[in-house]
Structures are given as C-alpha cells and as structure tokens.
Amino acid sequence: MTFNDDSRLSGGKVQRRGRGAAIGGGAVGIGAIVVFLVAQFTGVDLTPFLGGDGTTQIQQQGDTVDAASRCRTGRDANLDVECRMEGAAESLDAYWIRESRDLGTDYATPGFVLFDGSTGTGCGQASAATGPFYCPPDRSIYLDTAFYDNLQSRYGSSGGPLAQMYVVAHEWGHHVQQLQGTFAATDRSGTGASSGSVRVELQADCYAGAWVGAAATTKDADGQTFFEPITRDQIRDALSAASAVGDDSIQERATGSVDPDSFTHGSSAQRQAWFTRGYEQGVTRCDTFSVPGSAL
C-alpha cells in the first residue's frame, strides 16, 4: 500500500531495541524456546542448530527508544521501513479501536518492538531466525526487519510494502485474539490441516485482510486517510506473502515434500483464501472455528 504523503504520524507505537553485547554461555531452555518459535512459524525442525546442551547464546538487551521519532508523515513511511512500521501500527491501532467496539472486545494497543539480531522477550530469547511473532505474556509483537529480505529472497514473496505490512497485521491479529480469549480457549498443541493452531493462524490472516480492506478509509488524528486506495497489484503483493509462508510452501522448499499432518499455520491456498475473505467481507466473517475442516 502507498501512504498518503500528507498523512500525519504521531509516533510512539513502535520501539527500537539497540543491539546488545553478547555475553558468554547460555541459559538452559532458551535455545529450545527459540527453536519452538521457529518451528511454529515455519514448520521446520531447527533442533540441529542448538548447542549440544540445548542452549543458545544470549545478548544483553540494549536501550529501547522510539523507533519513529524521525517519522512524521506518510511520505516518510513510503521511504523508510521503520517509518512504514510506525505508519502501519498507527493505522492498525485506529482500525482495531473501531472494530473492537463492534466485536465487544476490550481493546488495548500491543507493544511493537523492532530489534537487530537478538532480544529477550517474555517468550524467551528471540533471534532474526525466529521470524516475526506475537508474545502473549508481553502482549507485544517482535520483528527484526531483516526478515523482510528473507521474505523475498528465501520465501519467494514479492516483498513489497503491503507484503511487509501484512506480516505486521497478521501479528496484530494475534494480539486481538489474545484480548478475545481465543488463545486461552483454543488447544494449539496439535498439528494438522484443521487443527486449532491452524484455525488460530487463518483467523489472524483474515483479520489482516479485513484491515487492508478498510485501510484506505482509516484516518489519522487530523482526519486524513493514512493510505491511498489499494490497487490490485498491491493485493497481489500481500497474497504473495501469505502464500510464501504457507506450511506447504515452506516444507517443500525445506525438505522437498509436504506433510499436512504437521501443519501449524495452514497451506498457502488457505492463507490466501482467508486473507481474501477478510479483505472482501470484513472482520465479522473471520470465524475460522465454526467451519468444518473441509471449509478451511
């Protein structure tokens, strides 16, 4: 999507953590947590990358600062990825403040942390390899923007601005699910094409699509719309990202085969379909839990 050049960014939604100095050794269990998070995002077992004792190196957390203090307008967001993250966050916040009232959800803004290389979270130590994720104990989104290079070069997405913002909108959807009690109510321990974990992920994709569908009408504090009207090419950009992170696509690239019984996020086709459903029909049509597995 393209920001309106004159839309105003208020700042304060996105924080940047500086790179910390590495400290020796590791903490027992931290490596396993990181590998779990990678597996949840990709469906690929990265256990071989752990040290022999199941540990991984930790970095000291650097200072946290306002990532967007220099980002003032939509023009800035069109030119700079961190400003784009700030602009997306402000638009998402404005959208969900409105939609949550209609859904009967008590909304609160999530944390949104950009980091380089490694950072500590309430879900354990995160690294660039972890990929973007939402941490329920922190109620925060964590993202190393280097992931966007991988999204294009490794995962095969077109990697444009809306592909990048789709990733954020998906994680923001997880925050809404946390507020709705979806995480607590859903058994996410299983795997498979119609498992609870897949239903959670597909709903987050639908929530992302619903935001995109309303983004061109969502306004900043001055009443200016954040974005110009969405184009078909931009929607294809978002769909390319949804396809790139489908379980089947990732598994085939990693192993040369596909195992639907191990799916945790849904196939490329499912992720595209639910994003499109949200985009075309809105957030109230994102109930992935009441439909049979064959309709996912």
UniProtKB/TrEMBL annotation:
Record flagged with keyword Transmembrane helix: yes
Record's subcellular location: Membrane
Which coarse location class applies to the principal site listed for this UniProt protein? membrane
Which InterPro entries has this protein been placed in? Uncharacterised_pept_Zn_put
Originating organism: Curtobacterium citreum
* Keyword DNA repair assigned: no
Sorted keywords for this record are:
Membrane, Transmembrane, Transmembrane helix
Parts of the chain that traverse the membrane? 21-41
Q: What is the name listed in the Swiss-Prot or TrEMBL entry for this protein? A: Neutral zinc metallopeptidase
| Membrane topology reported for the UniProt record | Single-pass membrane protein
